[in-house]
Design a protein that fits this description.
alpha+beta; Adenine-n6-DNA-methyltransferase TaqI, Chain A, domain 2; four-stranded mixed sheet
């Protein structure tokens, strides 16, 4: 990951109006593959909206996803729906809410929830809270691969220098460089398919979540030909 600004390497902590400068080591992923910026894929990104007042959730039917919903995902990374947190038709008419497609990858991009590294996939079309950003890649296989990579990478590594209120700006997501298997920047979809077959076996055979996540991390390292010695 290239660092262009000193602010990408520095975290400022405030205490009694004095500043303490702490150097942050950049995340450095070395791969045998050329890196492709996520914005150069068939890629869509949008940020969530402010939640309407509580009365617009009474007997609603349109799923609304908040940051804490990312604490409750199923075994395959899909966010579990909540029947008691749905918007009414009137809410959709009155407020400028954005609909996110099923399959959208969600993670926090503002507030302390960034530091959880929580990430999940929408099971159904949903409306999303403002602290979350969704990314959607048209190709489903590539989308699942990117989800696995982001879990491995840890999305909190995208945040800027921490000045009390963490944020991840859209341009930092757009310029994230992915070590997707490619030759001459042409994606090797046979390698992506092999990754997903191995991924399915891991999910099928390992029920312990912690062990499964370690195996999935190892699979990303294998698929992306990442040097373990250079991971920081």
């Amino acid at each position: 990951m290239k660092i262009k600004n000193l602010s990408d390497l520095i975290k400022f902590d405030t205490f009694d109006f004095e500043y303490k400068v702490i150097l942050k080591e950049p995340v450095n992923i070395i791969s045998e593959y050329d890196k492709i910026k996520i914005k150069n894929l068939n890629f869509h990104i949008k940020k969530g909206s402010s939640a309407p007042p509580n009365e617009y959730f009474v007997k609603g039917k349109h799923q609304f996803v908040r940051a804490d919903n990312l604490n409750d995902i199923d075994d395959y990374g899909y966010i579990k729906n909540k029947s008691d947190d749905c918007l009414t038709d009137i809410a959709l008419e009155k407020f400028n809410l954005k609909k996110f497609k099923s399959g959208t990858i969600l993670f926090p991009t503002s507030g302390q929830s960034i530091n959880t590294n929580n990430i999940g996939i929408l099971k159904d079309d949903s409306y999303v809270a403002q602290h979350l950003t969704g990314i959607f890649v048209d190709d489903e296989k590539l989308r699942l691969f990117i989800f696995d990579f982001l879990k491995f990478f840890k999305t909190s590594n995208l945040k800027e220098a921490d000045q009390g209120y963490p944020t991840i700006k859209e341009n930092l997501i757009l310029n994230l460089e992915l070590p997707i298997p490619n030759r001459g920047r042409k994606i090797l979809f046979n390698e992506i398919e092999n990754h997903l077959k191995k991924r399915e076996l891991i999910y099928k055979n390992e029920n312990n979540i912690r062990k499964r996540d370690l195996l999935l991390n190892d699979l990303i390292i294998e698929t992306c030909k990442i040097s373990k010695e250079d991971i920081k």
